[in-house]
Design brief:
alpha+beta, Gyrase A, domain 2, four-stranded mixed beta sheet, 3 helices, globular, disordered N terminus, signal
């Protein structure tokens, strides 16, 4: 039996995503090492992507491609939010459930969900997402590059940023998203993941 590699990270989000907690919109960068491809050939419903920029924040000197910055600045999440994940190798614009816009980098994880279970937590409900070994390793690589920095990553489900977890010490392979959701909100996210 192969020993499961601990990625050294427990990823826990405090609640729903919003600009106030530092989230940003998804973007689509080029594929990198550790990207787990979707079995269906297209983008999976679940992706983990680094946050490159947040709409409405000062983007001068951020070193981002001007065309992507313009697209982020004009993104209207309340009228026409993206509804699908982008290919893993591309940057992507995404919105959270509160209407905040984000520019996200290439997907570090695309699919690999083995189970999604709704759990009751302090302040509401969350979803515990169990990942296969390849996706857990890829998530560890993605988040490992963010530890000790201001960088965050986005959990994207069907084109929507559902959470912006922070990296902390702990164990990998299970990712908890949400935390302040109603039971119906958590059930919806879990259903879309399985």
């Amino acid at each position: 039996m192969r020993t499961t590699r601990l990625v050294g990270l427990l990823l826990v989000a405090a609640g729903a995503v919003g600009c106030a907690d530092g989230g940003s919109s998804p973007s689509q960068p080029s594929p990198g090492d550790g990207v787990t491809p979707s079995a269906a050939g297209g983008p999976a419903p679940f992706q983990a992507r680094p946050v490159l920029a947040v709409q409405g924040r000062d983007l001068d000197g951020a070193g981002l491609e001007p065309g992507l910055v313009r697209r982020l600045e004009t993104l209207d999440c309340l009228r026409k939010a993206p509804t699908a994940n982008a290919p893993t190798a591309e940057a992507m614009l995404a919105c959270d459930t509160r209407g905040a816009g984000f520019l996200l980098g290439p997907a570090g994880v695309d699919g690999g969900v083995q189970r999604a279970e709704v759990v009751e937590v302090r302040g509401g409900y969350a979803v515990q997402v169990g990942l296969d070994q390849a996706s857990a390793d890829a998530l560890g690589d993605l988040v490992g590059g963010l530890v000790g920095s201001e960088g965050r990553f986005a959990v994207v489900v069907d084109g929507t940023v559902v959470d912006l977890p922070r990296a902390a010490d702990g164990v990998g392979a299970v990712l908890q998203v949400g935390g302040g959701w109603s039971r119906a909100e958590a059930d919806d996210v879990a259903a879309r993941l399985t």
